[in-house]
Amino acid sequence: MDGISHRHPALHWLHVNLFSSPTNTILTLLAALLLWQLVPPALNWAVFEATFSGTDSDACKYVDEHGEKVDAPGACWTFVKIRWPQFLFGLWYTRNFDQAWRPVLAFVLALGIIAALALPMFSHKQRYQIAAGALVVYPFVAYALLNGAWLGLPEAKTADWGGLTLTLVLASLGIIAAFPLGVCLALARRSRMPVVKGYAVLWIEMFRGMPLITLLFIASVMLPYFFPIGTEIDKVVRAIIAITIFQSAYTAEAIRGGLSAVPRGQYEAAEALGFGFWKSTILITLPQALKISIPAIMNSFIQLFKDTSLVLIIGLLELLNIIQVAARSSQWKGYEAEGYIFAAATFFFFCYSMSLYSRGLERRLDTSLAARRAQQD
Amino acid sequence: MTEANGGGAQEKSAESIIQIRGLNKWFGPQLHVLRDIDLDVKVGEKIVICGPSGSGKSTLIRCINRLEHHQKGSIIVDGTELTEDLKSIDEVRRDVGMVFQHFNLFPHLTILDNLILAPVWVKKEPKAKATETAMHYLERVKIPEQAHKYPGQLSGGQQQRVAIARALCMNPKIMLFDEPTSALDPEMISEVLDVMAELAREGMTMLVVTHEMGFASQVADCVIFMDEGSIVECSEPGKVEEFFKHPTNERTQKFFGQILHHI
Ligand SMILES: Nc1ncnc2c1ncn2[C@@H]1O[C@H](COP(=O)(O)OP(=O)(O)OP(=O)(O)O)[C@@H](O)[C@H]1O
Ligand SMILES: [Mg+2]
């Protein structure tokens, strides 16, 4: 044997990573103490003493020696177990649970598109074609499925949509619609034409300086004034308009940051080769700028995803709000924590997936990384 | 040898392809960077421009393809006067290729895509033809095997040769070089200069900002020395060596004294 350490590799790993110096040792011990303090009680509450069975809140209560009903010490997952259809699909689909396949199918289709875009067997060009096609076709397909009327299925009006389904509709439409708007605003803000630039600056600064909740409120209260009297604007549409406007300001700033980070030489090389503004932007500078701004754009997407809960102000019940409502019912009073944990886990799942996807995207687009990898081979 | 770039060059030999008269340029209200420049470049002529840092060499050649715009005087390139008119700028840029100090290849595209992008999108050539031309020039600069790599995977010298090929793919009549070798490691300089010298032999009209005096004496028809925005001195036709050894102007003497000393 000629290894550096004759000890077991696991021991070696422990030594190098956890106990390499006095400071490291102290920090390791502190972290262990903290875990010891936190993990067992949390596990007790969430797992060992929790209730998973039953069909109503009585399952989570027991009668004490004085003959009174008392909450059991552990978590009451019965709440989530009974109410999850509401949380995921909203009230209408819970009442018409035989139709719940519609949102599920819409979701699976979206996943399919995203997966297809990530598959290595497609060339860049094919990916663009798939993405462009999906952007045009998918919203109609999703609407047809969720609403149902076009397909001759029982109609679920947009106002009937709720829960996670509504969260995903609002966030994805907001993100998709805000993206091209954000690109235009970013380009406009860098323009040398004062009017174009002025409008872009005004738009971006105004909507970035405003809380989303205000914008939602304005959209719900004031939007009707901009349309002929009697025009009924769908609540979900109002929310999407507000979210899109809000998000476009953030996307624009993220992309503008990317555009300024593209070296001047790139703009000059494009000019010297005879590219005009639009061609140079679309073929040369914007792709590089978008790559640079992926983390910033993704950051604002994740933020928006969580902010969708604010649509409560116009009376829409997305995931978080519908859980709150359920936890306020007389049946389930006192079980908010379980609901919130479910909401947190669901939000985390989606946000973390977005984060992973963006990191994968960054890695795939990093041509200098490709260089490093090639050198290692 | 190649019908691609030399063809039109020989026919109109004695004519000036670039004509600069009374050129003045300011950056902002104060900074006067080009002063009363007059310059004529004949078809097929190779001109080397040298001078101290900040003397306006880059600015001068960047005015020729309108990367910088001038305030006074006139620049006529192949019969087209450069004005605010976008059409004239487009026309001139079609005739003028440029190679930069820092290569400025498009990092998100492969080498081949770098080469065919402008022919396909600016000149509307069919992709197959553009690819053929691109491979032809990649062979000329001796790196056809790198066609499907990204710029970040190539050495500096290779990248600069790709940049030269990229400019040549647009079939320009004039090539501008702004210190093409000064960002390169010493061992890569000659591979780039060799490509440039070969291009010169084939009759390309070239304006080269460089301090590579070996290259200048081998290739240049005329060496221009600039200082503080003016052309201080020009070498007599065909007497480049002579010019390096015995410049008449005092500033030129001092400058050559310094750089030749270093070589
Ligand atoms: N975009 C610009 N804005 C303002 N001043 C500029 C700009 N570009 C160049 N200058 C100034 O113009 C003068 C001439 O610059 P130029 O780049 O043409 O010099 P150069 O001879 O190429 O020098 P170097 O050998 O360092 O490349 C310098 O004083 C420089 O600071
Ligand atoms: Mg310079």
From TrEMBL, chain A:
It is found in: Cell inner membrane; Cell membrane. GO terms for molecular function: transmembrane transporter activity. Keywords: Amino-acid transport, Cell membrane, Membrane, Transmembrane, Transmembrane helix, Transport. Its main location: membrane. GO terms for cellular component: ATP-binding cassette (ABC) transporter complex. One of its GO terms (biological process) is amino acid transport. Residues 164-353 form the ABC transmembrane type-1 domain. The chain crosses the membrane at residues 12-36, 100-119, 131-153, 165-188, 209-227, 277-298, 310-327, 339-357. It is a multi-pass membrane protein. InterPro entries: AA_ABC_transptr_permease_3TM (IPR010065), ArtM/GltK/GlnP/TcyL/YhdX-like (IPR043429), MetI-like (IPR000515), MetI-like_sf (IPR035906). Belongs to the binding-protein-dependent transport system permease family. HisMQ subfamily. This is Amino acid ABC transporter permease. It comes from Candidatus Amphirhobacter heronislandensis. The lineage of its organism: Bacteria, Pseudomonadati, Pseudomonadota, Gammaproteobacteria, Candidatus Tethybacterales.
Automatic annotation (TrEMBL), chain B:
This is Amino acid ABC transporter ATP-binding protein. Keywords: Amino-acid transport, ATP-binding, Nucleotide-binding, Transport. It comes from the Bacteria. Pfam families: ABC_tran. Coiled coil: none annotated. Gene3D superfamilies: P-loop containing nucleotide triphosphate hydrolases. InterPro entries: AAA+_ATPase, ABC_ATPase_HisP-typ, ABC_transporter-like_ATP-bd, ABC_transporter-like_CS, MetN_ABC_transporter-like, P-loop_NTPase. The keyword Chaperone does not apply. The keyword Metal-binding does not apply. GO terms for cellular component: plasma membrane. Residues 18-256 form the ABC transporter domain. It comes from Candidatus Amphirhobacter heronislandensis.
